[in-house]
Design a protein that fits this description.
homotetramer, alpha+beta, Alpha-Beta Plaits, 2 domains, eight-stranded mixed beta sheet, four-stranded antiparallel beta sheet, 12 helices, 18 strands, elongated, metal-binding (chains A, B, C, D), manganese (chains A, B, C, D), metal ion binding (chains A, B, C, D), hydrolase (chains A, B, C, D), Amidohydrolase (chains A, B, C, D)
């Protein structure tokens, strides 16, 4: 593959990245992003369909006989207030699904994913003489809430468009820019998000004997939930249970009537997952009883990310190609990640292999310094941090090359 | 005292009560209420001063030689959403001190206190031939946040107006309407409200090892705070420690960087109070250390209500007069209450006796039924409940008569 | 009353006290003590019955017409290892009811109670010309486990011996020797002792996922039990819930299959008591469920002490007599005590008044110094401490005089 | 290798196994066992040294030039009460190191290890014509407390006897008898056992305000320790923290002055281990502060097992030989085990490879049934269970053959 065309378009794509970064949109609200994507796909000559699964955009690049490769980029942002200090930092706000006004930031790099895929499509269009087959470009909404892949599939993605033979995708991650990282087999954790409401009985703060205190109830529950991982998951199994939010009451002298917990569960094994979820329910219910609650707690599944399994053969094949294109040492073998993604649904539902990789986003000098100081976890802002800001280069170039290279592995 | 005039004004005052109830205002925002009070005091011929300690109103009724009796009514409301279903229920909202938009309700009966005092002043004006001395009517803002009495005193209440010889006041309470209840000696608890902020280190919900989880930290703290009362306060001492609010995080999969607790402490003894407050600080700090926090917790005293001590002699004298006026059985001896009030500051600061009593607000039939079913605590809405709604009569009549009678005890 | 005889017998009784102190016996094992008591009662000419309610001893001193006064002294000791350093300190050991070998100590002063009652009986015998009626001397076993009074009553105490008209008794306490303290009305708390066994499922310490960990279960229960007092007992009610013992496991690397809690509950009101006991059961059961226990916890009531109510009239009458005999300032009015006693059962069962008082056991100089330093609670060893050691004088003299004086109040 | 001799000695060794099983001895008390071992080694013609590292026995079998293979069998038992119901079950009791009288049981199969090694030595002696080199038979005391290997090394094992070129050993485990299981690389967890003493201030159960309650302190600590694994160990790292024992107090109504925790920590990585141990110390100290303790907690390291790392090459070589001897399917690849062993110290200290494997002890029919019912963890008694009882055959035969085969891999 000849990457000279890249030099011609890099500046334009850098501008696109900065523009997307400055204008992040929440899950299922990606109207501006979708319009920009559709416009550019149209300019590249793809068949473009918008509104797939809400705000999703699908582009089809047909180029003769051959397999169909699904390339996926997610494009939603997060309710995080950007503190990167970049000149293209976001100052956007939006209305969250609960009606509240929140800041918005591309704190997970989906702007980079979109830019890389647009760039890769441009190169593939330019080089169409050198390959044959079909590229199915999937710009997915609402990855952050685990709902976008499901929505696109439910909206007929596999029926309305060429059926893929393999699903490829990538995610920017806080390791050294210029490198890609491959995972083989079970690669990214399943994730379940639950909203748990526990009911007490409100009252005056000075009369606890006439109330059932949901603050104590919820606090005892949070402590007890720590035992799920410490006592019910084997040391050599993997699970994480995080109560990311606890909310009850508004004043010190009023005992509120309920408390709300938001719980996130990560797992790599369906049996472990089921045991953990059952233990959470058991503990929550028992702690309500311990407090003398009059009413059963309520559980709401907010979202569910599937386990991502990278097909070993597809991964080996992709890794070989990336090694040839990026250099032997630029391709890392990574262990499974405790992060979650809904990208796996496409391949699972289509019954075809998935290969999904990470590409580094951290300035090489900064990363090497942090490594030397053993401070990576502390000093390199990770995804979802208000300070998360991929170095544009060589991140963008690497992401574009990786996508093109991986695609051509299947189409030449 | 001849209460026939009462029949002439009762209808008007009932309308005033309904109007005040429908238009509650938060602490230090009582502009409409203050204007209405000032207007009526002016009509009654009192010397009126507004803006005392923010929104407070002082009326002076001079009637010859004799002692000065301070009569106090508080007039602020609460950020509670009214659910009484009354035709004069509040639908007001206001901006709280933290900038949030909140519902407002007279959920503690201060509208009744204002109405009774206006009525009592009208009767005292009408009957001025039968007594001599001075009545100092104090309409106090911001009782709910323990700040109004302090503000009025700091604004020169004792210097700018006739200095009281005794301080009287009353509060409507969820016992049988038509009755008053007297407490002798230490009568209403001291109350301290604290805001505690505990600092963790935020991170991704799947990477707790790189974070310090403030949800766990705060939950462990709440449980440990239960030991203050259970282990550090003697069985025969009195203290209540309530964590009325716990707040941390917004999503299940993000570990937040801090948690906030609102704590309310009730006590009847300065040594117990100090031990409890010291224990809270010790536990909060130690639990932060246990979690590996990088930063010390922060403590902010939101408000502080003093212990209310009813002067025994003044109380006995008032009780006798009330028995004569309302009937022997209508005056109850009550034990100290776990509620708090800043009314005691006036007498303490002036160095004169205080007598503060409760008057019932619950429909007699309903109250007797609840008594018979042993369900008072469960079935009668207490102060601060969204269902708190005094029966207008005989509550209003009783409150007016009690105020007039008690005042004349000192002025005839 | 002429107390000159006291000078003749004091030395002998001091020797008796030292001997009893050096030879303490556990509840229902007081064979040596009972034999010595019986021998001395016989020498004084009383009708003596041994083996009443196990090891109890009853002496009857008939002296003509008149009322019958029951005088009660308890005589069992505690499984505490004495650390007083006294030359007559106990080095005894005994087999506890659970089969274990334990140290034994008169750490609650029952040796003093016995000595005082023997001394008082001697004086009453010597002075029989000056009074008439009957003295029923009750030497009770097993007060420490709340079982001895019940056992003597069940063994026919009220039927086999003269029926009392009043029940008197006294207890040495860590206030100034030479003083007595009177309580009126509800005076000593009810106490319930429970043994709670919680069942987990044992396993290897490295495989918690295959076990149900009773150490975590019991620990969570202990923390949750703190909420009974902090949240379910009103601030102005009185209750204490103490988990005095927690036991589970023998090694770090084996998860045991059960945990045992010993819980003690103090209360002054039957409704509070019932609510507390119900809350304990509710919490223990719910925490077992939270842990996923296969088996319900078990509850065993180890003992139960009744509330002690001092008859107001009998107390006033006794207090007046003691003031006359010991000095106006030597008789203190004490608030109710959080300690418990089964002495009240005698009067309750007989339907006659009880008057039970405390007498000081601490060296006056030491006590005044501690008072001045505000260190009484910390520096004066209390009952049940391994350092508890009443100063023999003036404690013994005061106890004897108090008993004789109180008795004669009813018999002259 | 010709195993026909095995048929001649099997009956005798079965009798030896039964005898050892019936006469278990605690760590460093293995006098009877050591004597029996020494006697038999002497009969086989080995050079025998007793008292190595306390009760250890070393036998040297020299057979010409060649490498030295260290074969290790541990021989101590556990303070567990046997409930197998076997006719050769132990009824032994012994005095534990804390002076208590405890039951003793070979609940970890060391009796089987000894028997297999004696059997293997017999076969090696018989077949000395077919191999050359030296066998160093190490019968190690006190494996259960992680002290025996250390003691033998400190007593000059590597200096006083032929220096090994490889260290081999095996452990019976609750999988199917007839099978062996190999682990490669980090194979058995490091284990640290700590005794933690937390100090409160004792007092009467009714006066918690004058005490510092160590039961609450220790219980809060146990709950907080659950957060070490749930919050401070990454989901994909491995650690187990078990509080196997909590002990405080003897009675419900006495607040004790201290509590004791026995904690066991498993880890596979020195950084994780250090973080976990530091977190435990931090939490214990902070919880003491939270309780207002006057005295710092005390930490005592009871024992420490090193991480066992099986040399990959040595393991592959041994596995191949075992496959040839026992059948292709009888050799399993096992994942790392959460169990711990001090066997690794020999190789680590000598700087030579270690290969340590498991051999199954469960009756094949029973195991297959449990597998089919998915009840292995629940229905097959594991090591340290009072029901742990290896099926003698084919366990014994497999263990002997495995040892001989592995040894000859290095000596032929």
């Amino acid at each position: 593959m000849d990457f000279r065309r890249w030099d011609d378009i890099r500046e334009d794509l850098t501008a696109l990245y900065r523009d997307l970064h400055a204008h992040p949109e929440l899950s299922f609200q990606e109207h501006r992003t979708a319009a920009e994507v559709a416009r550019r796909l149209g300019e590249l000559g793809l068949e473009v369909t918008t509104g797939v699964g809400g705000t999703g955009v699908v582009g089809v690049l047909r180029n003769g006989a051959g397999p169909t490769v699904l390339l996926r980029a997610d494009f939603d942002a997060l309710p995080v207030e950007e503190r990167t200090g970049l000149d293209y930092a976001s100052t956007e706000r939006a209305t969250a699904s609960d009606g509240s006004d929140v800041p918005v930031m591309h704190a997970c790099g989906h702007d980079m994913h979109v830019t890389c895929l647009i760039g890769a499509l441009d190169l593939l269009v330019s080089a169409r003489a050198s390959w044959s087959g079909t590229v199915l470009a999937v710009f997915q909404p609402a990855e952050e809430i685990g709902a976008g892949a499901r929505a696109m599939l439910d909206d007929g993605l596999l029926e309305r468009f060429p059926r893929p033979d393999v699903c490829l995708g990538q995610h920017v991650f806080p390791f050294q820019s210029g490198f890609v990282g491959m995972m083989r087999g079970p690669s990214m954790s399943a994730a379940d998000s639950l909203k748990i409401t526990m009911f007490g009985r409100g009252g005056h703060g000075s009369q606890p004997q006439n109330a059932v205190d949901p603050v104590v109830m919820a606090s005892a529950t949070v402590l007890r939930l720590q035992t799920v991982v410490s006592r019910e998951v084997a040391g050599d199994d993997t699970a994480v249970v995080t109560v990311g939010s606890i909310r009850a009451g508004t004043q010190g002298n009023i005992i509120p009537d309920r408390a709300e917990l938001l719980v996130n569960v990560r797992s790599f094994d369906e049996r472990v997952r089921e045991r953990v979820l059952a233990a959470i329910r058991r503990i929550v219910r028992a702690e309500a009883v311990a407090s003398g609650a009059d009413r059963e707690p309520e559980f709401e599944q907010l979202n569910r990310f599937p386990l991502l399994v990278n097909d070993p053969d597809a991964t080996d094949r992709t890794a070989s190609a990336l090694r040839a294109a990026l250099g032997e040492h630029a391709v890392l073998d990574l262990p499974p990640a405790m992060a979650s993604e809904d990208v796996g649904l496409f391949g699972t539902e289509a019954g075809v292999p998935t290969c999904y990789w990470f590409f580094g986003g951290t300035d090489p000098g900064r990363f090497q310094k942090a490594l030397a100081e053993d401070s990576v976890a502390r000093s390199i802002p990770a995804n979802h941090s208000p300070h998360f800001a991929p170095e544009i280069e060589p991140t963008l170039t690497t992401g574009v090359k990786a996508l093109v290279t991986a695609t051509l592995t299947w189409l030449t």
